[in-house]
Amino acid sequence: MSAPTANRWAAFARDTNETKIQIALNLDGGAFPPETDARLLQGDDHASQSTKSQTISINTGIGFLDHMLHALSKHAGWSLALACKGDLHIDDHHTAEDVCIALGYAFHQAMGSPAGIKRFGSAYAPLDEALSRAVVDISNRPYAVIELGLKREKIGDLSCEMIPHCMESFAQAARITIHVDVIRGFNDHHRAESAFKALAVAIKEAISKVPGKEGEVPSTKGTLTV
After folding, report:
1. What are the tens digits of pLDDT across the range 193-213?
2. Beta bridge mates, 170
3. Where on the tree of life does the source sit, at the highest rank (predicted)?
């Protein structure tokens, strides 16, 4: 009889003078960890969806960021509950950056050992005229190359300069390598959303378990933790 599979999940709070964040993440969908902050599940959210396989509840105070994280969670197959109270009276920078740092930390904690995963993932995602490509390496070497080609100053209340920075902040905290490029498209909303969807699908592939490779680390070094 095989040993039960460990849950790939994490839940914590991250409080600073600029933002106060509660987060719970399950990389395989389904339930949240028992230590999940009850405030996260009270329905005070802007982006929410509940199905038999996923629960998503996001409220960062920035509507377009909520929309992007909802798309990321949905297409990555995660359950994600996230709430942030940030210093939006200043601007969107601290909130957007800290939310994505917290999400990256949660991802890294939830992943645990990389043994048995595929490690690499790639995906294309269209949204009408826009098309994006994402390539992911669960490498323990944080690096991000993001080329979105956005032209507007803002989409909703999220500065366009913060959209690639959000992906970079996530990659750094998650300790993964990502390359995300928008190949074509003229609508910035479509360009950004297709990029997040491509990243989601690439992550889902990279963290998927490979039958028959249980306990094996996908690296010639024999480790991805140092």
Report:
1. 999 999 999 999 999 999 999
2. none
3. Eukaryota
CB contact at 8 A, 123 and 71: no
Residue 40: burial class (beta carbons within 10 Å; 0-12, 13-18, 19+)? buried
Long-range contacts from 46-50, C-beta under 8 angstroms, 24+ separation? 49/74
CATH number for the domain formed by residue range(s) 9-206: 3.30.230.40
For 161-190, write each residue's pLDDT tens digit. Answer: 999 999 999 999 999 999 999 999 999 999
Q: Is the dihedral of CA 193, 103, 133, 182 positive or negative?
A: positive
Q: For the chain, what are the domain ranges?
A: 9-206
- Give the closest residue to 204 by CA, choosing from 51, 77, 55: 77
Q: Which structure tokens are listed for 177?
A: 């390598």
- Cβ neighbours of residue 119 under 8 Å, at least 6 residues apart? 137, 138, 139, 206, 218, 219, 224
8 A C-beta contact, residue 99 and residue 65: yes
**Which amino acid belongs to residue 119?**
R
Joined tokens for residue 222: 């024999």
Q: Could you give the CA distance from residue 226 to residue 220 in angstroms, rounded to a whole number?
A: 13
Vertex 180: Cα angle to 174 and 185 (nearest 5): 145
* Residue, of 155 and 219, whose pLDDT is higher: 155
Report pLDDT for 217. 87
Q: What does the pLDDT look like over 66-83, one tens digit per residue?
A: 999 999 999 999 999 999
